Amino acid sequence: IIAMAGYFLISHTGYRERVETLKGNATAISGFINSGVTPERLESFIYGFSHSTGNSIIIIDNKGKVLMVSNVGDFYTSDTYSIDMEFCKEVLSGSDNIERGTLGGVYKSEMFTLQIPVISSMPRQVVGAIFISTPAPTMIKMQLYLYRTLGIAIVCVLLLSLIISYALSKKISKPIKDM
User: Fold this and answer.
1) Pick from 42, 51, 56, 73: most CB atoms within 10 A?
2) pLDDT, tens digit, for every residue of 55-72?
3) What pTM value is reported for the model?
4) What φ, ψ does residue 19 adopt, rounded to 5°?
5) 5 burial level (CB within 10 Å; 0-12, 13-18, 19+)
């Protein structure tokens, strides 16, 4: 029971920590966009940001059109010029969103994507969104490590309980055998 509680606590904390890191990155990019930076400087910024964090970054307008991409590795499908509204409806309504998958073929492999709206200051309205993606296998690998650790703990507890049960049953049954 303690192992299960520990597993869920660690798993949830690791997931939440990763989401908060991605959210912090997206918020920084959104602030940079809202500062009125030129498209060239923005592109340079997200390229550096993307490569230093190991995340793929896509910036879209409020119609789902891809405005800028900075891709780490070979994940992004280069012939994608817009993102299906099915995958960006929630973020374009002003809410943060998390998606897991290829976003309808935008990515070549499964990704874990945090979506943050870009909101203009005057008038306050959603003008686009930032998608920060990390390969899903990275998140899955962390979960598999936790599953393996939990499995080892369960096996150890079962073996220990079998040994203790055997020793106790021998001790309890000895007087009965001696009769």
Assistant:
1) 56
2) 888 999 999 898 888 876
3) 0.69
4) -65, -45
5) exposed
